[in-house]
Structures are given as C-alpha cells and as structure tokens.
Amino acid sequence: MNEIHFNQLQETLYHEKLENGLNVYVLPKEGFSKTYVTFTTKYGSVDRTFIPRDRKEYVTVPDGIAHFLEHKMFEKEEGDVFQEFSENAAAANAFTSFTRTSYLFSSTSNLYKNTKTLLDFVQQPYFTEKTVEKEKGIIAQEITMYDDQPDWRQYFGTIENLFRNHPVRIDIAGTVETIQDITADHLYECYETFYHPSNMVFFAVGNVDPAEMLKFVKEDQHSKSFKAPEPVVRQFPDEPDEAAETRSDLRMDVTKPKLMIGTKCRNTAMSGKEMLIRELASDVTLDILFGRSSEFYTKAYNEGLIDESFSYEFNLENGFGFAVVGSDTDHPEELEKLIFSVLDEAKSNWSITDGQLDRIRKKRIGLFMRALNSPEYIANQFTHYNFNEMNLFDVVPVLEQLTVEQMKEAFRDLYYENGQTVLTIHPTGNEQG
Amino acid sequence: MFNKTILQPGVTLYTRPTAQFKTISLSIKFTAPLTEENAGARTVLANVLEDSTAHYPTRTKLRQALEELYGAVFYTDTGKRGNQHSLMVFAESVNDEYLNNPDGPVFEQLLSLVKESLFEPNLTDGAFSETIVEREKQSVADRIRSVYNDKTRYANKRMLELIRPGEPASLSANGSEEAVLAVTAETLRQTYDSMLNNDSIDIYVLGDIDEQQMIEQVKDLFSFPAGDRQTVQPAGHEHSGETPPKHIREKQDMKQGKLNMAYSTPVDFRHPDYPKMQMANGVLGGFAHSKLFVNVREKESLAYYCSSSYSSQYGLLYIMSGIDAEEEEKTARLIGEQIEAMKQGKISDLEMRQTLALLSNSIRSAFDSAKGQIDIYDQYKQLDENFRADHLIAKWEQVTKEDVQQMAGQLTKEITYLLSGREALEDE
Fold first, then answer.
1. What is the rounded (10 degree) CA torsion for B135, B138, B139, B140?
2. Interface contact A433-B298, CB threshold 8 A
C-alpha cells in the first residue's frame, strides 16, 4: 500500500495496483458521513473502432454502444441491481462520457456490502436479446429528451462542427436509429475488451478506512478469475487541424437566440504533467479573457450582448481538445464579433500580464480547495486525471508555477487559423404562454 | 447542531464549528411575505446587491476583489417556502489554514465585503443607479423567460399554474416578468429599506471557527435597524378537492411528450403525518426501486424518467415523466394503477425497507456539504430547534405499510397534463 501525503492540502491518498492490473485508490475524509465509491473503465463513446480481445481485426461498433452497455450492466438474471443498492441504503448511478464509463454509489452505511454489489455487478455481465431490445425504448426516450434541450443540442452541435472524423463528434448516446443495430453479442464484445481490471480504476473517498478497503477489494478480486491483462488496441482516424464546418444554424422553440463559438485544440497527443500544464494554462487564459472580471464580460454584459447563461469551458483528452464560449443573446452577430475580437487581440497582441495571472492563479487555487469538500468532484476529476497519467493533487503546485509563457503556448494551439466554428440557434417564433 | 444566538429581535445567528470542510461559509437569509410583486422586486434587488458596492462600484472591481481572496464565493439568490419569500446572501472562502497567504485572513475580509454589500451598497445620493437597475431587471426577466426553454421545468410550471393560479404554489421566487419590469430605482430603494427594517433575518456561519469570537464579530458587523420584524406565519393551503380532475393537453415545437400529474394531500410539512407522506412518496416514485421506475420504465420501457416528488410546503405530490406522446393513455393508466395498488395496500416489506434506507441515506449525505447542513437545518428548525437527521430517521422507522396505504388513500388527483410536439410543424 502506497501512501501519498499532500501536506498543504492535509490529505493522504492510498494506492495499490493489484495483480490483475486494477488500480485501487482510497482517500479518507474526516468528518464525512458518506462514502462515494466509483468503479470506472477507460471506455467511452470515442472508442468505436478497436481490436476485440482474442481477435486480430479491427471492428467498428454501432454509435452509442458504450452508453447502452452502461445501461445494461444494471440488469441481471435475478433482477435489477438498483434494488439491491436501495436495500443497502446506497444511491447508485452511472455515466458515460467521451472517454470513460463510471459506475458509482454513495452511501452512509453498509459500505462493504455495497462495494461488493458494485464490484460484482460490473464484473458479471448478463445480456440477452430480449433485455437488449427492451432497453431500446428507454434509451430512445433518453435521446429524445436531450433532443429537446437547446443547451445540449448547441454543445454537441458545436463539437460536431469542429471535428471532421474523430468520433468525439458522435453523440454519446448515439441516435434512435443507431441503437437499433445494437445486439447482445456487440455488448459482450465491448465488455470483454474494455472491462478488464487492468483498464479500470477503483476509487473510494469519504468515510472509509484505507487499509480495510484495500484489503476488501484485493480479496474480492483475488477470488475472481480474469484473463491476463492485454493492452486495448484502439484506432482513431486522422483529424485535420481545421474545423469541419465554420458555421451552422438550428431552429428550436426557444425564447431568445443562442450563440456558441467553438475552437479546436491542436497538438493534443500528450499526457502526464505536460497535459496538466496545458489544461491549466488554457483554463487560466480563458478565465482572463472571458471570466466575470474580464473586460469582455463587463462590456458584453453592460451592452446586453450576454446574460446569466454566458459560459465557457475547455476540454482536453489525449487526441482531441476544444473550447466553447456561448450565451443566450438577442444580438448573436454582435456577440460573435466581440468574442472573435477578444481572441484575435490575444493572438496578435498578447498582453496578459503577470498581475492578471497572479489573480486568476489565486482564484483557481481557492476553487480547487473548495472543490475538495466534494467527494463527487474528487472522485470524478481524479479518474479523468488518472486515465491521462496526471495527478489531481498536482493541480496546486502546477498552478503555483504556471507562467505567462506556458499560457501563450497553450493559446497558440487553441486559437489558430480556420480552427473555429459558430453555432446559432434561432427561435422558431412559435412561442406561446 | 447549530448554536443559536439572538442578536436582536427578529435577527438570529446560528453557528456551527466543524473541521469537516476546508472552507468557512456564511449565509444570510431575509424573509418576507411571498407575493408576485415582492418576489420580482426582491430578485432584482438581489442581483443589484451582488453587482457592486460603494467601495467596489463596478462588477469588475468587485469580482477582482473576490479573486484576490482566493476565489471567494459571494452571491445572492431568492427562494420561496410556503408563503414566505427569501432573499439570501451566500459567501464562502477557503480556511486560511490551507493557504500560504501573506495578506491576512481571507474570511474576515470576505465578511466585511458582505457587510458592505448590505449596508453600503452602490448608491448615488441615496439612489440605486438607473443603468444597473435596468440591466438587472433585464437579466431577471431573461431568467424567468428561459424556463420556457427547459421543457421539463416548463411543463411542471404550467401544470401548477393550471391548478393553483396566483397562489404561492405556482408563483416563482423570481416573480413574474411584469412585476420585474415594473421595478424602478425608487421602488427598489423602498424594497431595500423594507428588507433591512422589516424582514426576519437568519444568519448562519459554519466552519472551523472560534465560535465566541465569531458571534462577537457578526454582532459587530451586522447591526440591523431596530425594526418591528414579524415572522411570516405559514398559511394553510387546503383545497376541497371536490372539483373533477382536469385533463389538459398543450403543444409546443418539441419531440418528447411530458406527461405530468398532480395530486393534492391534506398532509403538509407541519402535519403530524408528514414523515408518513415522505415514505409514501418514496414507495411510489422517489427512487430507482419505486413503483413508477420499476413499472413504467423498467417493465414497460415507456420512459427514461418517471418519478414523483412531494412538495410538502404546498400539500402536493407531482408525477413527472418523459414519454412518446402516443403512449399517453397507456402511461397514465399505469401510473394510476401504481397509486391504486398502494391504496389497496399492495406494498411489500422490501419496498418499505428500501425507502427507509434511501431516505435516511439522502438526509445523512446532505449533511456532507456546508450548504446542505444550512439548508436542511433552516427548514427543519421550524419543527424542531434541536433538529438532527436521526430525529427524522426515527420517525420514518415508525411508519408502517398501513400508514403508507392510508397516505395513498388521501391523495386526490387534480390534473393530468401533457405537453407535446405539434404534429404538423415542420421546419420551413
């Protein structure tokens, strides 16, 4: 068992890599009632072309399958796993992102019973054609629900505009049509390939004794048999730096137009510390350019170009990255001009000062410390970092040493010629009530 | 869990020293009667107070000051509970212990910033700036309008307006667009004076604090005018339930159908049977083991979500589901059958155990956030000044299947509401 102390944060992280390849992490939090436990596989919506375990050829599976598999894991021959979690006082859930599928529960009692349920249900697949068919109706309703959400459509529409080939452009849940092609065999094939312990991370945070939890997981894994660990072989298409579409428009039943600008990140083949620096440098730069204390924000808000819905974010994974900036606005054209003028100005006449960096650095350190109150945040962020060989607890030291030069470099890869798109949602004009 | 100190009549401080969090949190809650006008004016006021202060007269200056305090949180919000309207100021900063900060205690600086925002707002010759007021009116109006874009929320809002028009149950804590647009710099000044003079005020401080010192500090900083502060007395909201249930369908340009229902119950937050109704709601549709999830989603694949929630302040229980509108009748019938089953006592020991377990887990988990501790205590202190999660859990443990059956028997259906797409509406 490795102990990693973080003195300034007053936290200790416990870690062990088991024989079957599973990485187990435990972070005890004093004073907390609940424990939040996640069991996550490095398998998300972008993993659509890969060599299945024990085979030699690449296959491409139907869109939305990682998410579909996530749904189906909860159903077993003897019934629904939610029932078991409920009986043991745990709230269970799962989510699928571009790069991960995470199963989790949070509970204030019966920690080991629930941990056992979590490990077992994720490690014992059970799919039949009948149950797969039945799930299609439920997921179709989930997809339809998101189709009616303007923010979701705008976000995914922007990503779709940015990427020409990379599967990040495909909606995580797929479409009502693509999920029809999914069979139980597909699910087994994906399961066998991606749900090996060596491709997974177990993380427990909260009211938990690290030694006891490590021992419990170790014994559980020891009692189960797994095939030998094998690296997962994925394939991603070449992706140009340029955005696939420079602009698109949607019509939806909204009260006010919505504008989103997306910008694609190039040179994203990185991991570890390099990636952490890149991520934080990009975050801080966007904060200085678009944050609530920025010149942009004051001007845009005072002139009525943005409202409370204004937001921006940056996302980076090994192989793809992007930033989005958007708001509901009565003046989409003016707002578009203003956002691009801020970006152009930063590109041609970089003027971010050490003083601005120092202020945002402080803000970010505080934000991180506050986030450590949240077991959910810790577990989710930790896993994102872990899968990219970064360490969550390096965030503060990297922020403390971040330089304007690093920000400038990050910005060069985030804002360059032809790497942008604009998505506008226009009201259909049928508003009532 | 919180220690109570009466600072002056109608102004109460609640403190809780705890090392659980890396932050110190402050929440100040101003309570007044809930009316459409009041809600609108107070929400604009909340926005204006968050914008700037006398010492930080622009949004940028104020936000930069907060960034210098290690990204300290400072925001305002409004909310409602029964017939009460609240304007809340929330502030939080990292405990200095975790910062290598040479510039002195962060939370103390944050406290004086909050004090300024309340007692030295950004006024010129005693008046709020027209420009700021107009801009914030627009922001709040936009926020109210944007509910329309979220069909799940919109459907619930419409349903409530149809059964409780003009009553607190259907009023938004943000007020109405009309009320917001009617605000002027002058009326806002009256709203502000009334808030400081007449509202009942609850202040919460939670974190790794020296309690005595904190009490003195707060007493010193937050000295409100000696006014006549009346607590808003909760009003009853009994409905005869004798009118036949409504069935209303509305259409918008959308894909999914939102099938919602509302039932009224005489059991509200202050009713002795309140814990029984919480259990009944859990058995029906509060969780993933509940009847609605199991029968409507898992068995029939009709919905991704189908759940119930108990609005205890208004004696209402809502059911919300997202379905293919073609399946309205089938879904409505299935939902009706679940309630009927409960009325007939078809409730298993397992369902009771699961519901008790998850209700207990959810309240215990809520205590793992500073805001959760403040919000839950603030609500339950009306019933029990010494409130702890265990007290409520003990009450749930007493609830029997027969109690849940009896609660189901007291539900009166008021409305079935379907919001769905327009068939003939194609993009041009």
1. 120
2. no
Tokens 């988990």 -> residue = B365
- Residue B80: is its pLDDT beyond 80? yes
Give dist(CA B302, CA B300) in Å, integer: 5
The arithmetic mean of pLDDT across residues B308-325, rounded, is: 97
Whether the pLDDT of residue B424 is over 60: the answer is: no
Question: Is it the case that residue A112 has pLDDT exceeding 80?
Answer: yes
What digits encode the pLDDT tens for the residues B325-355?
999 999 999 999 999 999 999 999 999 999 9
Q: Chain B within 8 Å of A149 (Cβ-Cβ)?
A: yes
Pair type for strands A320-328 and A258-264: antiparallel
| Strand segments (E) across B63-159 | 73-81, 84-94, 123-124, 127-128
In DSSP notation, B230-284 reads PPPPPPP------SPPEEEEEEES-SSEEEEEEEE-S--TTSTTHHHHHHHHIII
Q: How far apart are CA B396 and CA A351, in angstroms?
A: 61
Among candidate residues A361, A371, A370, A352, the one with its CA nearest the CA of residue A396:
A361
Read off the pTM. Answer: 0.96
Q: Give me chain A's average pLDDT, please.
A: 96
Task: Give A255 to chain B, closest Cα distance, Å.
Answer: 7
Cα angle: A367, vertex A386, B366; to 5 degrees:
50
Catalytic site residue A87?
Answer: no
Q: Return d(Cα B312, Cα B294) in angstroms, integer.
A: 24
**B235-270 pLDDT, tens digit each:** 776 666 568 899 999 999 999 999 999 999 999 999
Q: Which residue among the candidates A11, A30, A70, A376 is catalytic per the annotation?
A: A70
What is the C-alpha to C-alpha distance for residues A260 and A332, in angstroms, rounded to an integer? 9
- Residues from chain A that touch B59, judged by Cβ atoms under 8 A, are 292, 297-298, 301
The pLDDT confidence band at residue B227, using thresholds 50, 70 and 90, is confident
SS (H, E, C) B373-395: HHHHHHHHCCCCCCCCHHHHHHH
Are the CB atoms for B39 and B80 separated by under 8 Å?
yes
Tell me if B48 sits within 8 A of B120, measured CB to CB. Answer: no
CB-CB neighbors (< 8 A) of A150 in chain B: 149
3-state secondary structure of B311: strand
Chain A partners within 8 Å of B367 (Cβ)? 33
ipTM of the complex in this document:
0.94
CA distances from A42 to A22, A98, A194, A200, A288 (A): 12, 10, 7, 6, 33
Q: What does the alpha-carbon distance between residue B172 and residue B362 come to, in Å, rounded to a whole number? A: 26
Q: How far apart, in whole angstroms, are the C-alpha atoms of residue B426 and residue A169?
A: 26
Cα–Cα distance for residue pair A238/A170, rounded to 1 Å: 16
